[in-house]
Amino acid sequence: MSQAEASPAGPAPGEVLLKVDNISLSFGGVRALTNISFDVMKGEIRAIIGPNGAGKSSMLNVINGFYHPQEGTITYKGETRRKMKPHQAARTGIARTFQNIALFKGMSALENIMTGRNTVMAHNPFTAAVYLGPAKRSEIHHREVCERIIDFLEIEAIRKTPVGRLPYGLQKRVELGRALAAEPEMLLLDEPMAGMNLEEKEDMCRFILDVNEEFGTTMVLIEHDMGVVMDISDRVVVLDYGRKLADGPPDQVRNDPDVIDAYLGVAHD
Amino acid sequence: MSNQLRIALWALGAPVSVGLIGLLISAMPLIDSNFFFTWGYYLEVVTTGLLTGVLYSLVALGFVLIFKASGVFNFSQGAMVLFAALFFVGFMDKWGLHPALAFLLTAGVMILLAMLIERVVLRPLVNQPAIILFMATIGITYFLDGLGQTIWGSDVFTLDIGLPKDPMFLMEGTFEGGVMVNQFDIVAAVAAGAMVIVLAFLFQYTRIGRALRAVADDHQAALSVGIPLKTIWAIVWSVAGIVGLVAGVMWGSKLGVQFSLALVALKALPVLILGGFTSVPGAIVGGLIIGAGEKIAEIFFGGYIGGGIEDWFAYMLAMVFLLFRPQGLFGEKIIERV
Amino acid sequence: MIYREAGQFKTSYARDGGLYPIRQDRYGLIVLLLVAVFAVPMMSEYWLVTIFLPFLVMAVAALGLNILTGYAGQLSLGTGGFMACGAYAAYKLATAFPDLNIVLVFLGAGLVSALVGILFGIPSLRIKGFYLAVATLAAQFFILWLLNKVPWFVNYSPSGVISAPPRAIFGDIYVTGATATPEAKYLFALAVAALLALAAKNLTRCAIGRSWMAIRDMDIAAEIIGIKPMATKLGAFAISSFYCGIAGAMWAFIYTSSVEANAFEISRSFQVLFMVIIGGLGSILGSFLGAAFIVLLPILLKNAPEMVGLSIPVDVIAHIEFMIFGALIIFFLIVEPHGLARLWQIGKEKLRLWPFPY
Ligand SMILES: Nc1ncnc2c1ncn2[C@@H]1O[C@H](COP(=O)(O)OP(=O)(O)OP(=O)(O)O)[C@@H](O)[C@H]1O
Ligand SMILES: [Mg+2]
Fold first, then answer.
1. Burial class (CB in 10 A: 0-12, 13-18, 19+), C55
2. Where are the transmembrane segments (chain B) (predicted)?
3. Which of B295, C255, C287, C326 is deepest in the core (most CB within 10 A)?
4. CA-to-CA distance for C264 and C251, rounded, in angstroms?
5. Is C307 on the interface with B (CB under 8 A)?
6. Do C225 and A182 touch (CB under 8 A)?
7. Does residue C7 sit within a domain?
């Protein structure tokens, strides 16, 4: 929790933002998650790790309201959540990036990031059709917010480029920008550094730490690179075959014999 | 659920539902004293509907074959029906060929067409989004409609391949006056049924059939075991073309060969929705349901709202059905992932 | 004129977000509008009635379909049905309220179509792609059947044909019905089309348009980042049908003056779809280019053989037209899936860099 304590804007340490209890999820016969419980403190960087198919992405999808678990409860900001749709979950301040880049290919980087602000923008077709007054003011105001994000992510040069033409690393960055544009309280990052080279990874780590520090944004991060996980996360949950293997600070998890067997052991083979 | 179980369920459930719907309709005279209902007449309507439905199934089958093997939603299946029928009737009428020869020749034309489509349309569009391919098949539709009529003219051709046309009475002992069905419809249904069985057999037991199924399951995997995708596509389009030819001959004998044939074939679309795009049994069952359903609706209820509801009933039925079961009767429910 | 944006720096986001950020584009549009308003009406009646009126009407319909299919990604084959809806709604409104201003009649027709559009858009909440396309056929066939069967819609006219009543704007300038002058009709249609195009451009460049494109490009991700699928999709259906409805009303009231439901049968839906594909999916300009192309092509085909001294029977020409349409669709999908609008774009980009291509 060093990050949260270090940040002056951060909330009181120890405040739980999200708590998942006994979540079980299956698809037909496949059990993707079995009895998973953990919590996420406000302002922390929480990592979820585990081998392929462990159920990490499914866990994020559950938090997003995209998958509906057969069992278990989710408590977010102190309230036990009823079954909700993804767009409702987004409106409670949860933003997300995806394992396989899910940008809107037909739009430019700027438009993608602007789309991230849809939760706070008005959608009135009548003012939009004439594009005077409120619609124009709103476009300009939100454009300013997005430009700050663009500056922060250092992607000024490509703001008007259709995202399909961007290299992979930049696409990942635009996707982060789209998530940040929602000014989320909690940011779910599904393998934000997968497939990047060392330099790109360093940049991405810096962005994540900066956002966390500057805005106190809570992060839930899935990552395969153990070095990165150990470096930037406050606490780590380890999943394997849909079950929770371990949960705790990076050092403790790293030395957990179960984890070494099931995960690190395999990886080092 | 296993396929056998499902088929058994359908075999049992279908007559029961036909009976139940009949019971419901038989209560109609209570509301409207002019309403005509006898069980014999009801069965006659259902049978006629089912026999038409078989032809819908046949067209739908062409769609399913192509969709399964190439993921292309072939809007031009209807146009292929018309195109094939025009060539068939043209070879017979204008060239005076024997029906069997005309059939073989037309089958050849359809195979040629399939190869051309694969070469000229599909190959350049490979890896494009499905929706682009779909629109390309709308282009094929227009092209075929135009080409067929440019070559053979746009008169209404009567197609007579010597099938019996007289009505015939079944179950005269059980119902007063019996159940009247058209002999032609029965022949058509039998032909269509035979076609379906042959296709199912080919799919299941031949090398090419296995290859086709492999492609349907996973294009990449099929490629990696060395099945040439292009050949496969040309083959399915040929088969779909020949299925279209059979459908065209049947429909053409029934309605005459004319442009409206392409529209009748559009009815195969709601059939597909009902059955699921990838399911051969779905195409068959869907066709039967739509065929019988729209006949019942038209004959017993169409009068109340001005008639002609066959134009849209199938689409509405499919649409309402979709709201409850988006994957169709036989489609698997897929949970998307990100 | 040299096409350059060098030296035109945008000093505010307002300027950068403007309709035509590049000055030459702005001037070009103004010149085009001036020509459309002052020069085109001087042309012969033949040109106005057989080319410009159908072009403007179909461009509005293409805008409608482009909003739904090109921007929101919901494939529809029911455009003809929604156009019919608008035509008949306008007829009922105009005959029931003879004093109602024609502009309000058109708006009303659009709103009625929008409601019907929402109704038939409901399946889009559960189904996608081809399944949806087939479901929209239900709208096409059902609406036409209804209009043909229920005599109330045609005010019990035995022929089933509706004749647009003459209506005027600014007091005494008749713009609809058989008696209006072609010039007045043309200018009215031009005004309607231009305003609707501007509105479409505005809608598509703000939050609503981005939601549509997000749903089109990746619906799951869109929902997870907070876009409401129901409101977005039904909104697209409503606005698209609004446009198609007005196009239908223009067809019945301005272009042909009398019409029966079969004018809007399924081939009309395909015609509009072709315009959108050839012009460019997801492009306002493309809707106009596509409409121009599809309106002009048959006229060209009809006249070209005569010009070179050939005489081909009319029905053969019709069939050849089918073939050419089909072939063109395939050609465009293969060569330039983004349509004429993209070709125009590429041309402009080349010009912008000319004469130094790097
Ligand atoms: N929509 C779905 N339908 C069917 N099965 C699914 C679906 N989503 C996930 N699964 C299954 O659930 C299990 C967990 O998948 P998940 O994607 O959550 O794993 P993961 O930990 O993110 O793996 P990776 O590191 O490969 O991303 C897998 O067996 C997967 O096949
Ligand atoms: Mg994953």
1. buried
2. 7-27, 39-65, 72-91, 97-117, 124-144, 186-203, 232-251, 271-292, 299-324
3. C287
4. 10
5. no
6. yes
7. no
pLDDT value of residue A13: 57
Cis peptide before C158 (omega within 30 of 0): no
Q: Give the phi and the psi of residue B329 in degrees, each rounded to 5.
A: -60, -45
A100 at interface of B, judged by CB pairs closer than 8 A = yes
- CA distance to partner chain A, nearest, from residue B338 (Å): 7
Q: Does the beta carbon of A54 lie inside 6 Å of ligand 1?
A: yes
Provide the domain count of chain B.
Answer: 1
What kind and span of H or E run contains A243? strand A243-248
Domain, as residue range, for C270: 41-353
The number of residues making up chain C comes to: 358
Question: Which range has the worst mean pLDDT, A160-169, A213-222, B225-234, C150-159?
Answer: B225-234
Q: What is the pLDDT of residues B226-282, one digit of tens each?
A: 667 778 888 889 999 999 999 898 888 888 888 888 777 788 888 988 888 877 888
Distance between CA C122 and CA C118 in Å, rounded? Answer: 6
CB contact under 8 A, A128 and C214: no
**Rg of chain C taking only CA atoms, in angstroms:** 21
Residue with tokens 């066709």: B287
Question: Does residue C78 sit within a domain?
Answer: yes
- Chain C, nearest residue to B137 by Cα: C330
Domain locations in chain A?
A: 1-93+187-196+219-269, 102-182
Residues of chain B positioned with their CB less than 8 A from the CB of A66 = 338
Domain assignment present for C280: yes
Q: What ligand is nearest to the CA atom of residue A242?
A: 1
Residue C25 has pLDDT above 80, yes or no: no
In chain A, what residues touch B131 (CB-CB under 8 Å)? none
Q: Which chain C residue is nearest to residue A160, measuring alpha carbons?
A: C16
Measured from the Cα of B336, ligand 1's closest atom is 1
CATH code at position B183: 1.10.3470
Q: Which residue has the tokens 């003809």?
A: C80
Give the total number of structural domains in chain C: 1
CA-based angle C242:C244:C245, to the nearest 5? 65
Q: Does C11 reside within a domain?
A: no
What CATH number should be reported for the domain holding residue C172? 1.10.3470
B-C Cβ pairs (cutoff 8 Å, strict): 130
Per-residue pLDDT tens over the stretch C244-266: 999 999 999 999 988 888 899 99
Is B338's CB within 8 Å of A27's CB?
Answer: no
B318 domain-assigned:
yes
Nearest to B249 by CA among B131, B66, B34, B80: B80
The whole-angstrom separation of Cα C193 and Cα C188 is 9
Least distant ligand from the CA of A67:
1
C71-110 residue pLDDT tens: 999 999 999 999 999 999 999 999 999 888 899 999 999 9
pLDDT tens-digit series, residues A154-191 = 999 999 999 999 999 999 999 999 999 999 999 999 99
The pTM for the full model equals 0.90
Task: Show Cβ contacts of residue C153 under 8 Å, excluding neighbours closer than 6 positions.
Answer: C88, C91, C92, C146, C147
Say if B336 falls within a structural domain.
Answer: no
Tokens, residue A99: 């394992």
Closest-lying ligand 1 atom to the alpha carbon of residue A191: 27
Give the residue, out of A58, A189, A237, A266, with the most ligand 1 atoms within 8 A of its beta carbon, to mutate for a pocket test.
A58
In a domain, B5, yes or no: no
The secondary element (H helix, E strand) that includes residue C59 is helix C53-65
- The Å distance, Cα A47 to ligand 1 centre, comes to 18
Task: Please identify, in words, the CATH class of the domain defined by A1-93+187-196+219-269.
Answer: alpha beta
C211 Cβ under 8 Å from any chain A Cβ: yes
* Residues of chain B by 3-state class (helix, strand, coil), percent to 5: 75, 5, 25
Could you tell me which residues come within 8 angstroms of residue B111 by beta carbon, excluding any fewer than 6 positions away?
B238, B241, B242
